[in-house]
Amino acid sequence: MAVNLKRTSAEDSEGGRTSRRRMLGWLTGAGLAGSAGLSAVSNFVFIKPRATYGQPQRFSVGKPEDFPSGTRAILAPRGICIVREGSKLAAISITCTHLGCTVGAADTGFACPCHGSRFDQDGNVTGGPAPRPLPWFQVTLAPNGEIEVDKDIEIAPGSYLTI
Amino acid sequence: MSLSTPPKASFLASLMDFPRNVWKSIFRNPLPSNDLERSATSFTNFFLHIHPVKVHKNSLRPLYTFGLGLISFFLFVILIVTGILLMFYYVPATSQAYDRMLDLRGSVAFGTLLRNMHRWGAHGMVAIVFLHLCRVFLTGSYKKPREFNWVVGVILFLLTLFMSFTGYLLPWDQLAFWAITVGTAIAGYAPVVGKDIQFLLMGGTSVGQEALLRFYVLHVAVLPAVLTLMIAIHFWRIRKDGGLSRPEDADPVISLEAMPTVKASVLEPKKTYGLQGLVRGPLTKVGEIPDNTVFSWPNLFLAELFTFVVTLSAILVVSLLFNAPLEEPVNALHPPNPAKAPWYFLGLQEMVSYSAFWGGIGVPTIFVLLLLGAPYLDRGPGGVGKWFSRDRLLANTIFITFVVANIIFVIIGTFFRGANWAFVTPW
């Protein structure tokens, strides 16, 4: 490879050959770097799944009669706790807002076994590292009379469905 | 030179010499009995030629290195071998993985032993690589010209941790599932790209089949390949940076009288340089100058063999005495209470229990950046090659503070945390 690394001032001032060579070198470098960047990006596109497998985010949990007043029913497979007080009904997440462990029922509300976050009956943080209260999910009464929970829609804590 | 044709070797004689000729064709040199043959043995053998022919006496002082880097490498070799063997029986599917663990324990010959060796070897590698990092820091060995090899070393340490992290999802037991749920959630706290990294790692929104497959691929293919490449660079640079670090006074001071004086006019302007002129490190010393090096054969090679035998024996003994734990199969609905990571991540888990961002991302990132930047921030030339040198009091104090803090967090996390991560006393 005859690569001329030494440039004399004469060549520089002459322009012509040298600047064309530098231009070609620059274009080659940019082309190679660009291709490498594109390949790297396409790898990330490849490993990012377009379809994922999982449970539906919107599901039915049963009739209102299944949850008499005073119920606090943890539906672990769904990741929610159904709360019924009188005619008011709500679905509170039981996935810890800290690092995603499943919280359990405790005397004062919920407690996380992983890092010690504690929540009150309404999911507000009362201790530990959890940064946010447990989210409440939208609950609706479907036309067939069943309670439907949509985990994609978070609602303000304290907003109940009145039956 | 004789013009007569050499006598034809009889077939019988060839047969008689067969084993000897094969042996000689493979090992070109006889067992060395003089310095020339010692040199030849070192650089004609593929496995030996990554060593220098002669090695500095300081590099062989057991109390200087404790052989920690070598032990790390031998543990890596043990993990590769046992890991490949385990792959013959393992299936990365949520429906089979746990049963395959039970098979290893119950019906595969040497299955328990191999799994134990792999598990304890992994724990050992994390510990020894960290101790090696401590040795290199506390002896100031990251200083010029070894700055970049220190950076490679820090990356190797992180890769080792990531190897162990991806490895412990594979048994698909309770510890595995919840540790990875928590670990990937920590990644989610990283700014800007956190959620994307979490999604890419898990291949979905929760830890399931996709995550198991991804962690398997990372654990058995991607990370070992990267780790092997980085180890090769690490070793290569040790040679190019002039061998292991040593104090300045370990090399003889060449007095001016001993130096041959050369008049400037004698030096030719168009001098060409051979490869020797490019190699850094101690110059080849000829003649009267005192020499602090010894031949690698047998001094270095025996030390390495000894280290390997001790490492392998230790892993074997531990693996025969203690079985690798296997918890209940995954129950995605009920985390164990308390849910604890392996001991080397318990410091992290304890910090995470105060703040997910600062414990899981902030403080570790600061620590890693300080480690990576150490050779470029601490430019003082003093204190290289000595343990706890006075010249490096500040750097060593900062480093030891971080290490001790982490050890305290590990101890709290291990012994002082009970159900719901509440503080308990172990007595």
Topology:
The complex is a heterodimer of chains A (163) and B (427).
Chain A: H1 9-14, H2 17-47, E1 58-62, E2 72-75, E3 80-85, E4 88-93, E5 104-106, E6 109-111, E7 118-119, E8 125-127, E9 136-141, E10 147-155, E11 161-162
Antiparallel strand pairs in A: 1-10, 2-3, 3-4, 4-9, 4-11, 5-6, 6-7, 7-8, 9-10
Chain B: H1 11-26, H2 35-44, E1 54-56, H3 62-65, H4 68-87, H5 97-106, H6 111-138, H7 147-167, H8 174-188, H9 194-202, H10 209-240, E2 293-295, H11 296-321, H12 343-352, H13 356-377, H14 393-415
Antiparallel strand pairs in B: 1-2
Helix pairs in contact in B: 4-6, 4-11, 6-7, 6-11, 7-10, 7-13, 8-9, 12-13, 12-14
Mean pLDDT rating of chain A: 85
Count of alpha/pi helices of chain A: 2
Major sheet size, sense and barrel closure of chain A: 7 strands, antiparallel
Largest sheet of chain B: 2 strands, antiparallel
Biggest sheet, spatial arrangement of strands of chain B: 1-2
- Shape of chain A, please? elongated
**Percent of residues of chain B in helical segments?**
55-70%
Between the first and last Cα atoms of chain B, what is the distance in angstroms?
89 Å
Query: How many distinct helices of chain B?
Result: 14
Strand-pairing-aware structural class of chain A: alpha+beta
Helix/strand/pairing class of chain B, anyone? mainly alpha
Uncertain parts of chain B = none
